Amino acid sequence: MATLQFVKMQGCGNDYIYVDGREVRPADPAVLSARLSHRHFGIGADGMILYGPSDHADIRMEMYNSDGSRGSMCGNGIRCLARLVYESGIVKSNPMIVETDAGPRQIELKLEGESVSAVTVDMGEPVLDGREIPVGASGRVVDHPLEVAGLRQLITAVSMGNPHCVVFVADDTVFKFNDTDFAVLGRGFETHPFFPRRVNTEFVQPIMRRHLRLRVWERGAGETWACGTGACAALVAAVLTGRAERRATVELRGGRLDIEWRESGPKANHVFMTGNAIVVYRGQVELPDAEMVSVGG
Question: For residue 133, is pLDDT > 70?
Fold first, then answer.
């Protein structure tokens, strides 16, 4: 049997299992993520993040959802990874560059001594052209009518390295849905043919122009307590529809994120996200030898 060491971390309640893949790695990360992420028969998480060497950055991140599907980018997940590799001495650069399937991301750590107290991620520029997101329409998709589960919805589409559908709500009704009813709603959007690669959906209640409330359904994971890319997409959509300023606090089920869509100056048009990154616990699991392979061997 092989022993797999892991660290479980969470950012605003969005939790992941972190696995060091620099020397050995899972033979099939997708299958392992689905097994370990199960909240009754595994460790329990929204997914697994595997990290290892990069030829172009300080570290590389691979993200797998709880159903085993591969994710391109995760804002909460990358914040936690940055804290983990910095405090472990694996990466000592600050800011650091993390390679993701959505491209490189720069991360700046706020330090208290040698400990990380907060993490800011340059999430890059939002993608607003419908075919690039991708969705079933060209150009900007802003307050676009879409019928889901027999109801007409107005959606705004944004990609932050993964596709998002933002729905603005007038009151807190959706926040009172039980898990079953919310799952029906979330899956209705996720699997809608308008979204050829499925979609993450954010239901957003504007509280004030600098305060948004959000409930999220993530493709491949279901409802999560937070979604970093979703919080970024929500702010971008709120600015595009005149509902928010370019800097706001996004309130999620698991906590708050500070999001800025920079208008001018250095890195204009980039979205920046700041939030916490918390170690939940460290542990190990026993796996058959065949489930782990040597890197480069």
Answer: yes
Mean pLDDT to the nearest integer, 58-83: 96
The CA distance from 250 to 158, in Å, is 16
Query: Hey, what amino acid is at 56?
Result: H
Q: Give the residues across from 159 on adjacent strands.
A: 127, 163
Cα–Cα separations (whole angstroms), residue 274 to 71, 79, 117, 249: 21, 9, 11, 10
Pick the CATH number of 144-269 from 3.10.310.10, 3.40.630.10, 3.40.50.720, 3.30.565.10: 3.10.310.10
Which CATH architecture describes the domain 2-124+278-294? Answer: Roll (3.10)
DSSP run (H or E) holding 278 = strand 278-287
Please state the separation of Cα 62 from the chain's center in Å. 12
Active site residues: 74, 227
What are the tokens at 139?
A: 């150009």
